[in-house]
Amino acid sequence: MLLVLSAEHRAHLGCLPRAGGAGKLNISVDIIQHGVEGLVYLLTESSKLMISEVDFQDSINVLGFSDELNKSLLQLYLDSRKEIRSILGELAPRLPSYHSLEWRLDVQLASRSLRQQIKPAVTMKLHLNQNEDQTAQVLQTDPATLLHLIQQLEQALGEMKMNHCRRIVRNMK
Predict the structure, then answer these.
(1) What does the pLDDT read at residue 11?
(2) Which of 11, 22, 25, 79 is most solvent-facing, going by the fewest CB within 10 Å?
């Protein structure tokens, strides 16, 4: 049931209420569609965060549903959270990962027109793994830009040590 409610059949969900379900219940098509989307969102986000049974119950108790419906939603969550997580894992983009880095410092000391010219350049070859394939990217920059990039990365790493960022990262896992 949950796979039918996932993104794969979202277009199909738009057609379901028009088949007569909304008319029989005397409910507008929009209300049914928003209800289904809300249920999908609730189950997806709860599964992403792997919240406990108690936290899930607290989340749905606020909605004001009957105890029987709350128990049904809890059971649906418990039965399908592993499957939802596996589907979300398959939908996640496969990003390249770092393999190795080669670098070289090139310095042009002079040219025909300028006898005393110092023009440094850092050339890097970044090897990446992506889906068991290795790719290489060649990058070239001047030392000042490279130092600025290093400072920005060190600042980002420093911010990751802050409590706010730690909470966000912990909830993402």
Answers:
(1) 42
(2) 11
